[in-house]
């Protein structure tokens, strides 16, 4: 069964010109992009998105970074999308991410680690709803999917 996940190309990824690279990796994996937009997160949205970190000592730095410049929000869909994207992204700390993962290839520090990806299907639903209105997430199929997905 297909699921959706949220991916954010953070301000450092946008500033470094990695938007196309990240989208390409998602698509080459076989996942479909169902929603895509560039925006600048404000403090209110940052508080919602990072609600579990608001009372932590690093929150001000996190909020300052994520609101500092534009980011790209994307909804990707496919079987086990959350797990597949998490594998593509790598560990939160780039030094713990294997080569071939986005953070392993492009990140150096936890604070500027290029990308955010939902960590569970439940969180993905909440995060997609925070960044996208229902009409902004489009459903479609691609002919190539018969060469990617097994019929069940």
Describe what you observe in this structure.
The protein has helices at 11-15, 19-29, 43-49, 59-66, 81-89, 102-106, 121-131, and strands at residues 2-9, 32-39, 71-79, 115-117. The chain contains 7 helices and 4 strands, in the order E-H-H-E-H-H-E-H-H-E-H. Helix content is 37%, strand content 18%. It has 152 residues and is α+β, with helices and mostly antiparallel strands. A 4-stranded antiparallel beta sheet has the order 2-3-1-4.
Shape: globular
Low-pLDDT runs: none
Query: What is the string of SSEs from the N terminus onward?
Result: EHHEHHEHHEH
Strand content: 15-25%
Mean pLDDT: 95
Largest sheet: 4 strands, antiparallel
Count of individual beta strands? 4
Kindly name the structural category.
alpha+beta
Which structural traits does this protein have?
152 residues, alpha+beta, 18% strand
Q: What's the short story on this structure?
A:
This protein is an alpha+beta fold and 152 residues long. It has seven helices and four strands.
Topology (SSEs and partners):
Layout: E1 2-9, H1 11-15, H2 19-29, E2 32-39, H3 43-49, H4 59-66, E3 71-79, H5 81-89, H6 102-106, E4 115-117, H7 121-131
Antiparallel strand pairs: 1-3, 1-4, 2-3
